[in-house]
Structure formats: C-alpha cells, structure tokens
UniProtKB/TrEMBL annotation:
GO terms for biological process: glycerolipid catabolic process. The keyword Transcription regulation does not apply. It comes from the Bacteria. One of its GO terms (molecular function) is triacylglycerol lipase activity. The keyword Hydrolase applies. Residues 21-274 form the AB hydrolase-1 domain. InterPro entries: AB_hydrolase, AB_hydrolase_1, AB_hydrolase_fold. Pfam families: Abhydrolase_1 (PF00561). Keywords: Hydrolase. This is Alpha/beta fold hydrolase.
Length: 301
C-alpha cells in the first residue's frame, strides 16, 4: 500500500496484528523492501509482533526524485575531505524521517526499528534523533562512517557500484546474481536457481538504478556518526557477519563500541546478505532483543 510519509509517497507492507508490538524494517542501498525475506517477517509475526517493511525513497515502488539530478560521488567525497558541507539531493537524516513518517501514517506511536547496511545507518540516526519513537534498535551489517575502519574488499565495492552492460532483463538479472555471489555469505551460499528467482522478481517489481546515485551521495555526505550515536538511549543489538566483504565486521564492532550498552552478535560464515539458512537465528536474536526491550519499557512506565 502507498502512504504519505514525511511529505512523500512511500510503499509499505505490513504483516501480523497491529495490536501487537511493531518492528519496522529499513532496507539498504539500492535495495527494495523485498530484500527482507518473507520468512523473517512471518517468523517475527509468529513470535507475536506486528511487522512493517517499506521501500526507501528513490527505490522500489516509493517516490522517485529524477528532478534532483545525479550527484557526482567524487565531488561529494572531495567536499567532505575538505571539511565542507556537500550539496546533496537528500540526506540519511531525511531518510530516517521517512521511517518516522511511515509510523505516523500507520498511526503507530512507538516501535522497534531494524536496519540493514545503509538501513542500519538510517536507523542509527532515527534512534538518535527521535528517541521517543523507539523501544529498541537493531543494526544489521552496518557501520559508523569511521574512515579509519577497514574498507570493503576491492571486489565487493566494485560489484556494488558496477552497472550492467545494458538494461535488458536478462543482463540485469545476471549482473545482480554476480553481485550477490561476490558479497554474499561464504558459509551460506544461495543456490543459483534461488538467486535467479530473487533477481528476476526484483527486476520485475522495479528497476531504477538512477536512485542509487542519490542514495550513495547521502551515505558519503553523512560522514562519521560516532558522536551522534553515542546519544542513543534505547536498547541496541548489533548483528554482523564475520565473513562480510562489503561492510567488514569491524564496522559492527565500532557501532557497538560507540552506543552505550549495545550488544554485539557476530556470526561466522555470514556475508552481506540475508540467506534463508540464517533466518531462524536472526529471528531468534531480533525477537529476544525486542521482547526484552519491550518488557524493560513497560516496567519503566
């Protein structure tokens, strides 16, 4: 369904009974809401939660912003290095406000929030900027913007930022399968037929590569979040794969180290994807974290 959130049109899907505690999921760079496995959503519904996932701005079925143009990532980075404030189409804080706007549109006062990769950056800003709206936060294979951390492997970064040779369906699908293979979980590989099915469904739902340029500029322009996330007061869980080649495990460690009381869970063999084999463990971790945070909040009232 479409809702008006933070003044823009956002595509939203919900699972479960709205009377139950809500968990809202924020997806990563260039990825659609379908990147969160249905099995994960349904697993959390089975644990007694109401679950929300949505397309970020400029991706999927949410509002696109072609009128804002195509920023040059190199220029944005150069201004950041020079200590200047780059002019970008929108910021990660704007995207955090979108998540809060989705809750407003759904009539939800307070929720648990989970974000993966760029979505993890967004939920860090949401929890820091709107503390009254969140019972807990979970950051999944994300980082702090600390430039001293180990970077992505060359192969992983090249795969993420590369474009297919053309925009024909078969070419794009093959390219997305290659990207998944490069950044995916070494211990939990996705079978080729499943990877193809997911890539085809993603393409058929929406293919809009122009939006990723603006999202990438927002990531660069956000800079180092360490000082900002130190103010997060809700319970925080950090989930990260030891085998992640795109956002290295040190990013998760740095996130946990800079948020008071955060709990870090590292998973061997996990890369930068959400393989179905890991869904039960991820559901267990998120459900336990949200339940404990909800109990703590209720006791404090």
């Amino acid at each position: 369904m479409q809702v008006k959130a933070n003044g823009i049109d956002i595509e939203v899907e919900t699972f479960g009974d709205k009377a139950n505690p809500t968990i809202i999921f924020v997806m990563g760079f260039g990825a659609q809401l379908t990147g969160w496995p249905v099995e994960m959503m349904e697993g959390l519904v089975d644990r007694g939660f109401h679950v929300v996932r949505f397309d970020n701005r400029d991706v999927g079925l949410s509002q696109k912003f072609p009128e804002l143009g195509q920023p040059n990532a190199g220029d944005v980075m150069a201004k950041m290095v020079a200590g200047e404030t780059p002019d970008v189409p929108y910021t990660l804080t704007d995207m955090a406000a979108d998540a809060v706007g989705v809750l407003d549109a759904l009539g939800i006062d307070k929720a648990h929030i989970v974000g993966g990769s760029m979505g993890g950056m967004i939920v860090q800003l949401a929890a820091a900027g709107w503390p009254e709206r969140f019972h807990s936060m979970t950051s999944v294979f994300s980082t702090t913007g600390n430039q001293e951390l180990p970077p992505s492997t060359d192969e992983a970064l090249a795969a993420l930022l590369s474009r297919p040779e053309n925009e024909e369906r078969d070419t794009v699908v093959a390219h997305q399968m290659k990207v998944r293979k490069v950044i995916g979980s070494p211990g939990y590989p996705t079978p080729e037929d499943e990877a193809r099915r997911r890539a085809e469904e993603t393409f058929d739902r929406s293919y809009y590569p122009e939006g990723t340029t603006r999202q990438y500029a927002a990531i660069i322009a956000d800079g180092d979040r360490r000082e900002r996330i130190k103010s997060i007061s809700c319970p925080v869980l950090v989930l990260h794969g030891v085998g992640d080649p795109l956002v290295r495990v040190e990013g998760g460690r740095d996130t946990a180290a800079n948020i008071p009381g955060a709990r870090l869970v590292e998973i061997e063999g996990w890369g930068h994807d959400l393989p179905v084999q890991l869904v039960p463990q991820l559901v267990d971790e998120i459900a336990a974290h949200c339940s404990a945070a909800g109990s703590k909040a209720a006791a404090a009232e």
